[in-house]
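Supplementary Methods, section 5.1.

A reviewer requested that the exact input to the structure prediction be made available. We therefore reproduce it here, unchanged from the version used in the analyses.
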Amino acid sequence: MNEPAAEFRKLPLRKVIWGAFALSWQHRVSLFRATALPMLAVIAFKLAFNVARSDESEFIGWTLHLFYGFATCWLAVAVHRLVLLENSDAISASAENLKRIGLFLIFLVGVWLLYAGLALLIMSGLLNVLLGGYVPAGEERRELPMSIEWLNTLAIVLAYYVVARFSLVFPAIATDRKPDLAAAWLASKRNGWRLAVVVGVLPWSLKYLTELLYRDGGTYGEFAVLVVITVLFTLIEVVALSLSYLEITSPAPLPTDPPA
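The structure derived from this sequence is encoded token-by-token as follows.
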């Protein structure tokens, strides 16, 4: 990825989030052309995965899950390249593009495992601190000062902060830069919580909006519409990360001469 700027700049969060929606709408035609195939692949595998869940075949389920993950990475790479490079070559089946998407998927799985491990570790640490650790025989453990759900939420939030610091590696991979986790961590300095909003709060909010439209006993047609909405929201989320990467890693503008 790009070398981090000498001076760390504050991520303009409002500009990035608003820009993700505005840019996606203003350039909806070019965005659709560049992402039509991966979008269709994501929708198809998501629908197939939902149908196969009642099949009780773990092999089919995991296979569809893998293909769904690959299609999602294909979509993310296509969006990143369009926003950051104005390049729509990510829909090709070339060896270079397949390698790019495969590397994106590997890092995505790695970061997800990091998130899951951190959330579990933080949760265990919080419980150990709040419950007092080892309790001698005959003594009762102290009660938790808050519900287990709140503790779980806190662990997830703290884990998301770490994941957000590494999230800049994904636009870097999509644009054929070195996937350097250390550089991503350094570049995100002082912007960790703002990036956590981009990669955590924004997707959660859009997911919540989608779930509001869900109803028990809905038809497959209704589910298909929700899948399409989810994919469109995914486009916006990826655009937001692209804009964040651009804001943080792009060279600072040259200083202008002061007026005479």
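The first helix runs from residue 13 to 26. These observations are discussed further in the main text.
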